[in-house]
Specification:
CATH superfamily of the domain at 153-255 in chain B: Aldolase class I
Radius of gyration of chain B: 20 Å
Strand order of the largest sheet of chain A: 2-1-5-3-4
Strand order of the largest sheet of chain B: 5-4-3-10-9
CATH topology of the domain at 153-255 in chain B: TIM Barrel
Distance between the termini of chain A: 35 Å
Shape of chain A: globular
CATH architecture of the domain at 153-255 in chain B: Alpha-Beta Barrel
Number of strands of chain A: 5
Structural class of chain A: mainly beta
CATH class of chain A: Alpha Beta
Number of strands of chain B: 10
Distance between the termini of chain B: 58 Å
CATH topology of chain A: Ubiquitin-like (UB roll)
Largest sheet of chain B: 5 strands, parallel
Order of helices and strands of chain A: EEHEEE
Number of domains of chain A: 1
Radius of gyration of chain A: 11 Å
Low-confidence stretches of chain A: none
Oligomer: heterodimer
CATH class of the domain at 153-255 in chain B: Alpha Beta
Strand content of chain B: 5-15%
Number of helices of chain A: 1
CATH architecture of chain A: Roll
Number of helices of chain B: 10
Mean pLDDT of chain B: 91
């Protein structure tokens, strides 16, 4: 099971970060978005090649209004 | 309503951004045409936020980083890009140096800026900064090449420690975030201005325009306002008021106020007074 933003997901091990973003309704290169897998930032340049491993915790963050 | 406020007696001179008077705020080598920083939190809509940003004249606005919400409408990033402002990502909600550092790294990736408004919160009720964690996070981020603007208490010693580490500015609070209680310890804010060589940005606690003017009169280099504008009944009008207040306070600080006295000092000369028999 791969957890995305705290929720169990249908993402399968080996899918790329870009594929995860598309599943979430985002563009594969969405601007204003950052991704971490198991506590490490995945650089934008690696999104299309980085394969998410089994059991991974993925965080997909974006801009939110805030002071 | 809008027009009434715009055509008010405040002349355009009073609210002109500082670039015109060549009194420019520089943070980490970047020149900013306004001494008002704006927080984007709390606006009821993105449209109103964009209008308020324009009215404030601010060129540096904060954004937070949160999990993607697939149901969110409108893109904050797009609206801010259209506004032509520089982004200052914050680490709001972080309680440890580790979380704050990770959030800053994510923000750098998301927004392509190495600037960060560093917040490490130590208490849920007051949202006051956690000094040891703040210093730890600042040190780590500075080593990692970030331009760090820490949200700090009004403690001059802590501010100096942060500046000594290499922070690009310090952002002392006037009073707790969102409290609108203004500047509770003006004496300390003035001491901070004396204690550090980097810009001092009064952050948190601003309730209305006079608070912003006071911050500038105390010698602060800039003021950051969020809730005071976004949660005002008319955020656009308040943005305009803050802009004028920051400008007025800056001018007054440079002008040099008269000393406070206990008794009256006549401004009209005694000499030449008539004597009516």
């Amino acid at each position: 099971m791969i957890v995305v933003n705290g929720q169990d997901s249908d993402v399968r091990a080996g899918e790329t970060v870009a594929a995860v973003l598309v599943r979430m309704g985002l563009d594969a290169g969405a601007r204003g978005v950052a991704v971490a897998v198991d506590g490490e930032v995945v650089p934008r340049a690696d999104w299309s090649s980085y394969a998410v491993p089994e059991g991974a915790h993925v965080e997909v963050l974006t801009a939110m209004q805030g002071g | 309503m809008e027009d009434v406020v715009t055509s008010d007696a405040v002349t355009s001179d009073a609210v002109t951004n500082d670039t015109v008077t060549s009194d420019v705020l520089t943070i980490a080598g970047t020149r900013l045409g306004s001494r008002l920083l704006l927080g984007t939190g709390g606006f009821p809509s993105l449209e109103l936020m964009a209008e308020a940003i324009a009215a404030s004249g601010s060129e540096l606005v904060t954004v937070a980083l949160r999990r993607v919400d697939p149901t969110a409408r409108g893109s904050l990033v797009d609206v801010l890009a259209d506004a032509g402002v520089r982004l200052l990502p914050n680490t709001a909600g972080c309680h440890t140096a580790r979380d704050a550092v990770m959030t800053a790294r994510m923000a750098r990736e998301a927004f392509g800026t190495d600037w960060v408004k560093l917040e490490v919160i130590g208490d849920e009720d007051t949202l006051l900064p956690d000094a040891p964690e703040l210093l730890r996070a600042a040190e780590e981020l500075l080593e990692d090449g970030f331009v760090v603007l820490p949200y700090t208490t009004d403690d001059p010693v802590l501010a100096r420690r942060l500046a000594d580490l290499g922070c690009a500015a310090v952002m002392p609070l006037g009073s707790p975030i969102g409290s609108g209680m203004g500047i509770r310890n003006p004496y300390n804010i003035a001491l901070i201005r004396e204690a550090v060589d980097v810009p001092v940005v009064l952050d948190a606690g601003i309730g209305t325009a006079s608070d912003a003017a006071l911050a500038m009169e105390l010698g602060c280099d800039a003021v950051m306002a969020a809730s005071a504008i976004s949660r005002a009944q008319d955020p656009v009008a308040m943005a305009r008021a803050m802009r004028a207040a920051v400008s007025a306070g800056r001018l007054a600080h440079g002008a040099g106020r008269i000393p406070r006295r206990h008794y009256a000092t006549p401004s009209t000369p005694e000499e030449g007074r008539a004597e009516f028999a």
